[in-house]
Amino acid sequence: MSGREALRMAVQGVLANRLRSLLTMLGITIGVASVIILVAVGHGSAVAVQQRIEDLGTNTLTIFAGGFGAFGGGGAQRGTQSASAMLTMKDVKALRDQSAAPDVKSVTPVVEGQSITLTYNGASYSPGQFIGTTPSYEEARKTPVEAGSWFTDEQEAAHDAAR
Prior knowledge:
mainly alpha, 2 domains, two-stranded antiparallel sheet
């Protein structure tokens, strides 16, 4: 049987069973489209998860004063931290010292508050959560500012000098 004869028989078979051929082509089309959509959704989800992990900081170490311990065990509990367990700006400066801690890229102290009232030019605002930090927070957490801009290192130095 030649290639030409095989092609003629195939066309004849398709034309003889038109409904079956149409349903078969429809099934194949739907199947291929479903696989393409599932792969695209899976890839998009993987990229989204990877981006969220990257936003958290894949090489970030967070230290809490008082040490809550791994998986909640050991260490001081919330509200019962002693003064000796609190981290200070002296600790931050020691960690920023490249000769003492050569593998530390940046150190970002953070103070969080729940009941803070901010005032500026006579206007008051009480946010649900307040984070006080230094300019290195932007690089460490890759967190954008919704409005305005981050404080600069020069502004922080000027503030420290004014104290």
